[in-house]
Amino acid sequence: MRFGRKIGARLLPPLGYALMRFYWYTSPKRFHIRSPLPTGQSVVVCWHEELMISPQAYRKYRPDRPASGIISQHFDGEIIARILGFFGIRGLRGSTYRGANKVLLEAFRALKRGDDLLVTPDGPRGPRHEIGDGAIALAMKANLPILAVNYMPRRYWRASSWDKFLIPKPFTTLDIHLRVVTLEDTTSMDEAKRKLYKAMTAHLSETKDDET
After folding, report:
1. CA–CA distance, 122 with 144 (Å, rounded to integer)
2. Total domain count for the chain?
3. Three-state DSSP class for 149?
4. Model pLDDT for residues 76-128, shown as the tens digit of each residue
5. Model-wide pTM > 0.85
6. DSSP labels for 50-116?
7. What is the extent of the structural domain holding 164?
8. What is the rounded CA–CA span in Å between residue 212 and residue 208?
9. What would the pLDDT profile of 15-54 be if each residue is shown by its tens digit?
């Protein structure tokens, strides 16, 4: 098993990266910029199910920003970390389940050196679309805006995984949404979670509205 995982850790990341780039270059894209994008540092969030496209959308608008991403210590996290490395995003390994203290320390170090910080608020195990404390706590501590990057393909499959991972069908149109969430006026963690959840799910109805 260990030998198989070592082989997989070498072969799967370049294959995954190639598949992501295939979708990016062959799919028509519509970009919906819902608020002025930050010019400086930010915490960047997307749902775990949207990792096929959202990191690429982030890099389109912030191609040269130093960036780190919080990624689980599980085997699939190793694959994701290596794939994101192709996009110049440094992996910080850990989660609220394993290595929490270590990854939070590394996250604060990344923010201190000026990196954007990428987080999946419902990762690494879910529940799906449930906002954890991490992204919000980091953004509030560092006094940074949150950049929400979401997308929805017109035609797609969904995996049977906990996150119902989103897989676009080839050559379908991708609607990509970016918006900034600020938390200066929030008074509690629950309020901040509701605000971020609203921002990260707004695209599900906005895409339909844009088509009418």
Report:
1. 20
2. 1
3. strand
4. 889 999 999 999 999 998 765 566 778 889 999 999 999 999 999 998 888 99
5. yes
6. GTTTHHHHHHHHSTT--EEEEE-SSHHHHHHHHHHHHTTEEEEE--SSSSHHHHHHHHHHHHHTT-E
7. 2-211
8. 7
9. 999 999 999 999 999 999 989 999 999 999 999 999 999 9
